[in-house]
Amino acid sequence: MSQKILVIADHHDGQLLDATGRAVTCAADIGGDIDVLVLAHDGQAIADEAAKLAGIANVHLVNNAANEHAVAAILAPQIVAFAQNGGYSHVLGPNTTFGKDLMPRVAALADVAMVTDIMAVHGPYEFDRPIYAGNAITTVQAPDAQMLVASVRCASYGAAEKTGSAAVAAATVEAELPTHTRFVGLEQAKSDRPDLQTAPKVISGGRGVGSEENFRIVYDFADKIGAAVGASRAAVDAGYVPNDMQVGQTGKIISPELYMCFGISGAIQHLAGIKDAGTIVAINKDPEAPIFELADIGLVGDLFEIIPALDAAVS
């Protein structure tokens, strides 16, 4: 039986996010026809960008004033109605903040089981996913007699190439939208630095940085090499940086080509968030720090001496 897969587009400020392309790559591993659903207020530019993703058959654009803000309670009924009417066998979303909020609600409304954090595909309904903070991998078999709702572990997949030319079609969805949930406002950190979850280079600091003021040395070095900036939970809890910078099991799961961490000991929760990184470079004063067990390159030393030396070397 051929699969018919619907990927939910993750977008922000009128731009398609890289996570959507990663979910498309996972969908290609499952096999079958792949469509993308864009739910927006005015999403033509987003849909046109999604149409460039390789392997996409169609992009369906649902423009609705109710979709101006990505409120899961508003989007989920539309996704369920569209997927059921379209006869989709799979509905996939990225495991970003957007997807983690949305996809469980989709599964609940559709009254089906959900598979979270797909990291490898063995068959249309058989997948690997991480458990125990990423320290073990389990293979799960989902029922094939019903629609499968799943989230894709973005760190495990590269984004689909933008070599496609899929058709974009306007669509309408007949779904009863809830009135008990409404958008009130958005508070978010803004930065000119690369996005932490998709950047090819990430520089992180931990408790060893010492203070919010001292974190400036990490920011400056990251800016020098064009890297995103992350942090350990200990640094976040200490108030050095905002929590949207947290990397780890309870923060962002990332897979940069280069990950450099300064003053991070390597708690298991942090290691769970960086295991898929290409090259891990760790700098810590403690030679027994657990981070060195995972690092490809380890340097025992004072970060306040090493960062200026690295800065000078790349000047």
TrEMBL record:
GO biological process: fatty acid beta-oxidation using acyl-CoA dehydrogenase
Top-rank taxon: Bacteria
Keywords: Electron transport, FAD, Flavoprotein, Transport
Residues bound to FAD: 207, 232-233, 246-250, 263-270, 284
Molecular function (Gene Ontology), one example: flavin adenine dinucleotide binding
InterPro entries: DHS-like_NAD/FAD-binding_dom (IPR029035), ETF_a/b_N (IPR014730), ETF_a/FixB (IPR001308), ETF_alpha_N (IPR033947), ETF_asu_C (IPR014731), Rossmann-like_a/b/a_fold (IPR014729)
Cofactor(s) for this UniProt protein: FAD
One Pfam assignment: ETF_alpha
Cofactor notes: Binds 1 FAD per dimer.
Span of domain Electron transfer flavoprotein alpha/beta-subunit N-terminal: 5-187
Family: Belongs to the ETF alpha-subunit/FixB family.
PANTHER family from the UniProt entry: ELECTRON TRANSFER FLAVOPROTEIN ALPHA, ELECTRON TRANSFER FLAVOPROTEIN SUBUNIT ALPHA, MITOCHONDRIAL
Role noted for this protein: The electron transfer flavoprotein serves as a specific electron acceptor for other dehydrogenases. It transfers the electrons to the main respiratory chain via ETF-ubiquinone oxidoreductase (ETF dehydrogenase).
Protein name: Electron transfer flavoprotein subunit alpha
